[in-house]
Amino acid sequence: MRNRSVTYSAQATFHALADPTRRAVLDLLRTGAQPAGKIAGAFPVSRPAISKHLRQLRGARLVVEHRRGRHRFYQLNPEPLKTVDNWLEHYRQFWQMNLASLKNFVEAEYAAESVQDQRTVAPPHKTTGKTT
User: Fold this and answer.
1) Quick check: 75 and 63 in contact, CB under 8 A?
2) CA distance linking residue 21 with residue 27, whole number of Å
3) Which residues pair with 71 in a beta bridge?
4) What is the pTM of this model?
């Protein structure tokens, strides 16, 4: 047996994830392997439509099909999702830096407003002790 490394197509993964029904199928499979009939029953579309979605997910290697007798079971393969996670990491860093900058800005503005509010409060009147 040869030792092969498996590579996943980022384009196929993103294309498969572009459809909300396929994402919902993946969400359903997070709980474990499911028979095709149960997957199809979870959606308001036809069985042939779900079959096409499963075929695309299989083509992107996001799901693995196992046959037991006449039944087909589908299981989530999370490995291709690492490509998505790696791509998103750059955006996570971007947002973390920008959110940190926003936080610093808002805190500085709040502190400046607090100082300004303290200055505009009228000081208490001094009493001279004289009555008129």
Assistant:
1) yes
2) 10
3) 68
4) 0.67
